[in-house]
Amino acid sequence: MGFIAQQQGNEYLTYQFLNRLVESVDALTGVSSQGFDADGNRDSITDPNSNETRFDFDKSGRLVQETLATAEQVNYTYNARNLLASVTNRRGQQRQFEYDAGGRITRWTDPDGSVSFTYDANGNVLTVTDSNGTITREYDKLNRVTKYTDIQRNTLQYAYDEVGNLVALTYPDGRQVHYEYDAANQLIKVTDWAGRETHYEYDLNGRLINTLRPNGTQMTRVYDDAGQLLQQKEVIISSGELINQFDFAY
Does domain 196-250 have CATH number 2.60.120? Predict the structure, then answer.
């Protein structure tokens, strides 16, 4: 079997000809590797400390057992529809899953209790219920969340513009945060319930270069020609005093 090796920074990567990564040599962390069975399933992972985790698959290629370096095991079973039916963790605790006709989880049960789910006709999660209560979500015609209600009946409400940008968020006490965008749908201003504004500026490539905060500080970012962040600096606008600066090298 042939192999291909390449270098990425301080890391050397070795691949099989099927483009499967089989070994990673990092100058800082050491050697890690992974193995594959005849069907191409990843059947082992070995970390730099030589701890090996093994994976076993059934004839259908489904993961059925995970054996940790400590010899502890995690086991998986499936139903007749090839959906995950149960997971038994290394402590022997099992979580079981139930599904609707569309293959969506409707309930899972473990030793700590159960959680149930309901969906709308578009597959959006409407309710999540456990022993503490129910969380509900409402959606618009474009499947965007318009209202979220927690188990204490506190609500968050969301409003969007015609292209899907979030323009307003209303908290349970009625306070609102408003969002504004430029023609490229880039967020340029956030205004909170007290009228405090945060402004954002971008370069011609859409990268964030300036953030002006209501507390009188400014964060600037500088990038190289490849778009990698070179420097991030925060100053007090009125005095120019430096708050922090981070420089990056690649």
Answer: no
